[in-house]
Amino acid sequence: LHLQSPVVTTWNQPFVLRTESPVATVAGGHVMVPAARKLRRPNAETLQALAALRADEPTTRAAAAVYFAALPLAQASQLVRLAGVDEPDAVLQQLISSKQLVALSPSGQRQLLVPAALLDDYADRVAAVLSKWHDQSPLKSRFDRSKLIHEFAYLGDPLILQTVLQRMERSKRVRLSDRYVGLADRGPQLSKNEQQLFDQIVELYQSARFQPPTVKECEQQLAAKNPKVVKSLISLAASDGILIEFGDQMYLHADRERELRQIMQQRLAVTEGLTVSEIREALETSRKFAVPLCEYLDRIGFTQRLGDMRRLSHSFVDKEVEATAAAGPNPRHE
Fold first, then answer.
1. Contact at 8 Å (CB) between 241 and 254?
2. 83 with 61: CB under 8 angstroms?
3. Alpha carbons 67 and 64: distance in angstroms, whole number
4. Over the stretch 6-61, which tens digit does the pLDDT of each residue have?
5. pLDDT tens-digit profile of 172-181?
6. Number of Cβ within a 10 Å radius of residue 11
7. Cα 184–190–195 angle (5° rounding)?
8. Regarding the domain delimited by 255-327, which CATH topology (the fold level of the hierarchy) does it fall under?
9. Cα angle at 165 between 161 and 170, to 5 degrees?
10. CATH architecture of the domain with residue range 118-183
11. pTM of this prediction?
């Protein structure tokens, strides 16, 4: 039943529908679900839960009400309105024990109670979004989690999406790391050995900081039997956004690229400009890497070159660096 404006109702509350002109009774009944999530197609489980809303046993009614809930619960007393229970605290604990409700504890806030059915619904939405991204970028195996967080900002507390992703990972629906997420059955599929080699490559670039190895050096350091595999895995890491190409066949780990911009923003904010030599010292690297790194920053519009000096570009607003600086160190890639 869709209304023109919201009304306050409770479980089992009688209602009557009448036309305004001429005044006539159209229908009537009892409210079973005061605020329901959208159901695409009723299945056997949905019909069973609907019947359970009329059950005499309060826990059965509450479980059904939780199944249909459109929003997370903030407190046990909401079960009084949703299911007409007299002892909501006891019923709530039973629902949590049976895993029909998932209790989340946001930092500094009261407990958030999310129906498991609602988390499953969110998981389907996440899978649909990721599937669309995979269709658009078939060579990518995963995507930046920050992009997904922005897409699902309407869920409210970020802990809800985090819980959804963790549940999806446990059921092997997604590949998940600190910064990336992708559907487990989409994108290039790596063998166990290839995945191990991929992780070693990522770790090598992470630890190298601002003196990253060349593709050939990667092949030599990892003693790969098939050098072409190393090159293709580096390309895969770049397409996934884990590695950033800053020069011809020169890659930087994405965490280090953000660190690069953060260091440069901090240094250039208190001076009129820096030379390549000064930038080299700030990054603790050699001229071999400092020059292409400076050229990369010029190319993305982060810095401007004025003679032998680099200064911050006034047209470039690096919100990611500002957010990173406020949040503290970046988590390491798993």
1. yes
2. yes
3. 5
4. 888 999 899 999 988 888 999 999 998 888 777 777 778 788 888 989 999 999 99
5. 999 888 778 9
6. 21
7. 100
8. Arc Repressor Mutant, subunit A (1.10.10)
9. 150
10. Orthogonal Bundle (1.10)
11. 0.61
